[in-house]
Amino acid sequence: NILTELVDPLMHMLRNAVDHGIEFPEQRTVLGKPAEGRIELTFMREGNQVVVRCRDDGAGLDLVSIRRTAEQRGLVTPEQTLSDDELSRLILAPGFSTKVESTQVSGRGIGMDVVHSSVLQLKGGLSLDAISGQGLKIEIRLPATLISTYALLVRAQQHLFAISNY
Q1: E strand or H helix at 12, and its extent?
Q2: Per residue in 67-110, pLDDT tens?
Q3: CB proximity list for 29: less than 8 A, separation 6 or greater
Q4: Buried b (16+ CB within 10 A) or exposed e, 47-63
Q5: Please, how many CA atoms are within 13 Å of residue 40, restricted to the half-sphere of its CB?
Q6: Closest Cα partner for 39 from 60, 19, 23, 18?
Q7: How far is residue 28 CA from its own chain's centroid?
Q8: CA angle 58, 63, 68 (to 5 degrees)
Q9: Tell me, what DSSP letter sits at residue 25?
């Protein structure tokens, strides 16, 4: 069930990495990067949490564009001072997107709020770590208790079965 709930958010994160993060090959070459971009999706368990990381080696977040869009939408005022982290987290606001129109890659033109709200429904947390010109890392942390269950292990000949009460 947890994996089913994460499919759409993960697809959205990957699409965003392609559409917003990874530069065109010519631009990457000029910047001294390999022509092909890299997107890494990892799953691991750390203590009592399951950690999902999506990391790309693209442009990172365009904080100037995020600020401009936030001002246009009335989320912040021009005189309001925000840290880079606060600006980054604005992409999690409902419907927030710096793209003027949706593309075939980004899809429906909905923002990262879909990912954030899905993670919150699963009682998890989401963090953003952007380095301008070097990429973006999105980290989702979910309580492992959501995906673990008590089970009775039964061995029948060479087979091992886990019997759960769910």
Answers
A1: helix 2-16
A2: 999 999 999 999 999 999 999 999 999 888 887 666 555 555 56
A3: 35
A4: eebbbbbbbbbbbbbbe
A5: 11
A6: 18
A7: 22
A8: 130
A9: H
Tokens (6 digits) for 86: 């606060």
C-beta separation of 59 from 43 below 8 A: no
Residue with tokens 């990067």: 33
Is 107 in contact with 131 (CB distance < 8 Å)? no
Q: What sign for the dihedral angle of Cα 113, 119, 123, 125?
A: negative
How far, in whole angstroms, is CA 118 from its chain's centroid?
A: 11
What are the pLDDT digits (tens) for 133-143?
899 999 999 98
Measured CA to CA, the distance from residue 141 to residue 48 in angstroms comes to: 10
Residue 126: what pLDDT? Answer: 96
> Do the Cβ atoms of 78 and 101 come closer than 8 Å?
no
Give pTM, 2 decimals: 0.79
> Strands (DSSP E) along the chain, which ranges?
39-46, 49-56, 125-131, 135-143, 151-156, 159-164
Residue 13 is given by DSSP the state: H
